[in-house]
Specification:
heterodimer, A: mainly alpha, 75% helix, B: alpha/beta, Rossmann fold, six-stranded mixed sheet, transmembrane helix (chain A), membrane (chain A), MetI-like (chain A), MetI-like_sf (chain A)
């Protein structure tokens, strides 16, 4: 690899990144396969058809309105789960008594696959918004809890001791020493929580939804509209990527003090 | 007491054990206001245990300790909060008014004003200890506890830090307890050098050498040798006449010229 510094006057013409070549070839093969009838549209729509459908759905507003519903579910679940998981982690992390009260039941619940709870949630909460949001909240609370709890326990006791001698105690100690010390773990937990929330959103929206991306997919399945399904899958992927990039941006701001980030 | 009627610190019958190990046994100690004490002792002799009791970091002892409420500690590691800038670290636990008026002055005194907005991870070892000293001094303590604060610094940085600590002490006059394993450091800085052994103060030596002190001073060398022997290090008596072989002297002179 040559760098720009090595060749000061290198022409800045457009170059295809080498890693983009093979995906583009695959898409081209897919398009050709669809055109010559090798891939029937009811199995998988052609890329060109998918793009056309995407623009149609944007133009009609159908995509945006359903996307807002899905995002609302994910964010509500994320907020609720973050609040519960974070709160429990603070209780368990800050005292031995809190740990004994909180940690054993949480660790036991954690072994349950959340997806296996879908049917129970439908029995308890019906098929409205409640089970969807609670399912996401439950799944999200575990990564937040585990990472924040570990982060709190991992704060250097010498720093806590020093801060105490300089007059910090109680809420000030938590705010200035313990939570900032646990922040790297918490952000890692948030990244994992975002992945989980997105995954559970897909599952939750299969429960008799009347709006949202999952509703669009279910409808499209009934009419064999594979182009709509692929558009929705692309949107799921794009939002997952955006969320991850968002947390990484948050990390570089909140963790600016870390040696690895100072130089870079 | 010669300096004052009421000592800054009074320790009576202080005992502390960890499990079966008796670390401090009926220890008695007075520190006068503004007095600089250096505490020597072999590893495990209880130096840090005594400092921690005085600094209220440990209260599982028997006996009594009377110490001023205004205490500040500088630890062997700087122990700065990595997520706060140097200025924020120095100002930790202060009121807003104190923070506004004192922090930058303290940073200036330790020669760290230009690094006030730096993250601790970017500081050198010496800079970190300067910040830790500023954080202790900004509280205007009546008792300053230094727990081997120079142990992890390189020799040149340590010399600079010795001068800094001496001048800061002379400017603010807190009582100081410096825990160290460096005999030169103790003799260089302290009014009194204590040697801790078997849980008690075995040697209590007043240092009468005028400041600023010079390690080459014969009086310095004599006291150094005495303390080292007290610590169980056998060293030859200081030479009364120069028996250095002539050849070696020439080499030494050449080095001195270079």
């Amino acid at each position: 690899m040559t760098t720009a510094a090595a060749i000061p006057n290198a022409p800045s013409r457009f170059r295809l990144p080498r890693r983009a070549v093979s995906p583009l070839i695959l898409i081209a093969l897919w398009e050709i396969g669809s055109r010559i009838g090798l891939i029937p549209a009811r199995i998988l729509a052609a890329p060109s058809q998918v793009v056309a459908t995407l623009f149609d759905m944007i133009a009609s507003g159908e995509l945006q309105s359903n996307l807002v519903v899905s995002l609302g579910r994910a964010l509500t679940g994320l907020a609720l789960g973050g609040f519960i998981g974070g709160g429990l982690a603070i209780i368990a992390g800050l005292s031995k008594r809190g740990e004994l009260a909180v940690d054993p039941p949480v660790q036991m619940l954690r072994t349950l696959p959340v997806l296996a709870l879908v049917q129970l949630f439908i029995v308890w909460f019906g098929i409205g918004e409640t089970p969807k949001i609670l399912l996401i909240a439950l799944g999200v609370s575990f990564p937040i809890y585990l990472n924040l709890y570990n982060g709190i326990r991992g704060v250097d006791p010498k720093l806590i001791e020093a801060a105490r001698t300089f007059g910090l105690s109680g809420p000030a100690l938590i705010r200035h020493v313990i939570l900032p010390g646990a922040m790297p773990s918490l952000l890692l937990g948030l990244r994992m929580a975002l992945t989980v929330s997105w995954l559970l959103l897909v599952i939750a929206e299969q429960i008799n939804a009347s709006a949202g991306l999952g509703y669009l997919i279910n409808n499209a399945r009934d009419f064999l509209q594979t182009d709509v399904i692929v558009v929705c899958l692309l949107v799921y992927a794009a939002i997952g990527l955006t969320a991850d990039a968002g947390v990484r941006a948050l990390e570089s701001r909140a963790l600016a003090w870390r040696p690895s980030l100072i130089k870079g | 007491m010669s300096r004052s009627d009421t000592p800054a610190v009074t320790v009576r019958n202080l005992s502390r054990s960890f499990g079966d190990a008796q670390i401090l046994t009926d220890l008695n100690l007075d520190i006068a206001p503004g007095e600089f004490i250096a505490l020597l002792g072999r590893s495990g002799s209880g130096k840090t245990t005594l400092l921690r009791a005085l600094g209220d970091l440990d209260n599982c002892y028997t006996g009594t300790i009377a110490a001023p409420a205004g205490r500040a500690i500088a630890f062997q590691e700087a122990r700065l909060l990595p997520w706060k800038t140097v200025r924020q670290n120095v100002g930790i636990g202060l009121t807003n008014v104190q923070r506004a008026t004192r922090v930058d002055i303290a940073l200036g005194e330790v020669g760290l004003a230009h690094r006030a907005d730096a993250w601790p991870a970017t500081l050198s070892g010496g800079e970190g200890q300067r910040a830790a000293l500023a954080r202790a001094l900004v509280r205007e303590p009546a008792l300053l506890l230094l727990d081997e604060p120079f142990a992890s610094l390189d020799a040149l940085t340590r010399i600079k830090m010795h001068r800094l600590v001496e001048s800061l002490w002379q400017a603010h006059k807190p009582a100081v307890l410096l825990v160290t394993h460096d005999v030169d450091e103790a003799v260089l800085l302290a009014d009194r050098v204590l040697v801790l052994e078997a849980g008690r103060i075995a040697i209590d030596e007043r240092v009468e050498i005028a400041r600023p002190r010079d390690t080459a001073d014969p009086a310095f060398q004599r006291l150094r040798a005495k303390l080292l022997r007290g610590l169980g290090v056998e060293i030859p008596e200081p030479r009364t006449e120069d028996r250095t072989p002539p050849q070696l002297r020439v080499v030494e002179r050449r080095e001195a010229v270079a």
